[in-house]
Amino acid sequence: MTGPLNGWRTLAEQISEQISSGCLAPGQRLPSEEQLQQRTGLSRTTVRAAIAELRRLGQVETRHSAGTFVLGVGDMFGLRPGESVTASAALVVTGVDGTTRTLPAGTRIVVAPAEPPGS
Amino acid sequence: MTGPLNGWRTLAEQISEQISSGCLAPGQRLPSEEQLQQRTGLSRTTVRAAIAELRRLGQVETRHSAGTFVLGVGDMFGLRPGESVTASAALVVTGVDGTTRTLPAGTRIVVAPAEPPGS
DNA sequence: TTATATTTGTCCGTATGTATT
DNA sequence: AAATACATACGGACAAATATA
């Protein structure tokens, strides 16, 4: 098995891939929670956990009683040495392998110094 | 009544204030979910929702089977090539000369590519 | 080392409220 | 007014990882 994974992680990943591949375009509405329940056989709790994850990753936005919608890709900003970034909300760092890490609000993001080659 | 006990937002706010006021110091463990249940009379679902909110705000970090711990603030984070950062709130970039620039929420911060010397 | 208790993780079901369509 | 869809909240059960004895 590729990995049984949990319920909500698997579902979040599947939807995320549909977004990445363009099957779900920006502005488009995701299936309702009930529809996702029926299609996947998962409970509503699990479906909602998956959507919450997508929200955390900034891929979708949920509007009360209207649905969950795919967000467009945000702009990129290239941070240069000497510059720093902060925000009044938590910062989510996405690593090279796709894993994420949450930093407290107020953390200062700077460009890491280059590693010396002889490490 | 011991308190209003209305919902996960209230609980999250209460704990958040304890963190802001220093009653809960960085590194300190929050009461367990069961303890919070008993103290507040809320269900575990609601208690967990409150903690999830604190996590979303970057105020705490939860370690499996160990507990939820208060995070320190004002730390630095060195961003490395390949990593990216976003936040659900506006991002403020501070330049080398001290000037600031505000970027919309969702903007992806990446390490700017090194400029070739002959530019 | 083994065993036990604690604590969080995941998952399910149900009910009701609220906002949108 | 009615149907749809998300928000909140309760309850229970078992798994998994950690800490402790």
Which terms summarize this structure?
homodimer, 119 residues, alpha+beta, 2 domains, two-stranded antiparallel ribbon, 3 helices, DNA-binding, HTH gntR-type domain-containing protein (chains A, B)
- Poorly predicted parts of chain A: none
Q: Quick check: average pLDDT of chain A? A: 88
The main sheet of chain A orders its strands as: 1-2
How widely separated are the two ends of chain A? 37 Å
Provide the CATH architecture of the largest domain in chain A.
Orthogonal Bundle
The helicity of chain A comes to 25-40%
Give the CATH H-level superfamily of the largest domain in chain A.
Winged helix-like DNA-binding domain superfamily/Winged helix DNA-binding domain
Which CATH C-level class of the largest domain in chain A is it?
Answer: Mainly Alpha
Domain HTH gntR-type (chains A, B): 5-73
Keywords (chains A, B): DNA-binding, Transcription, Transcription regulation
GO molecular function (chains A, B): DNA binding; DNA-binding transcription factor activity
Protein name (chains A, B): HTH gntR-type domain-containing protein
Please give a quick description of this structure.
Chains A, B: Keywords: DNA-binding, Transcription, Transcription regulation. The structure is a homodimer of 119-residue chains. Chain A is α+β, with helices and mostly antiparallel strands.
Characterise this structure.
2 copies of one chain form a homodimer. Chain A is of the alpha+beta class and 119 residues long. Chain A folds into 2 domains: 8-70, Winged helix-like DNA-binding domain superfamily/Winged helix DNA-binding domain (Arc Repressor Mutant, subunit A); 76-111, no CATH class. In chain A, 29% of the residues lie in helices and 24% in strands. Chain A is built from 3 helices and 7 strands. Chain A has helices spanning 8-20, 33-40, 44-56; strands at residues 60-63, 67-70, 76-79, 84-87, 91-94, 100-103, 108-111. In chain A, the strands form 3 sheets. The first copy, chain A, has a two-stranded antiparallel ribbon with strand order 1-2. Chain A has a two-stranded antiparallel ribbon with strand order 4-7. In chain A, strands 5-6 form a two-stranded antiparallel sheet. In chain A, a hairpin with a 3-residue loop joins strand 1 and strand 2. In chain A, helix 1 packs across helix 3 (44-56). The longest helix of chain A has 13 residues, at 8-20. The N and C termini of chain A lie far apart (37 Å). The mean pLDDT of chain A is 88. At the A-B interface, strand 3, strand 4, strand 5 and strand 7 of A face helix 3, strand 3, strand 4, strand 5 and strand 7 of B. Chain A binds a DNA duplex (21 and 21 nucleotides) through residues 6-8, 32-34, 42-46, 48-49, 62-68. Chains A, B: It holds the Pfam family GntR. Chains A, B: Residues 5-73 form the HTH gntR-type domain.
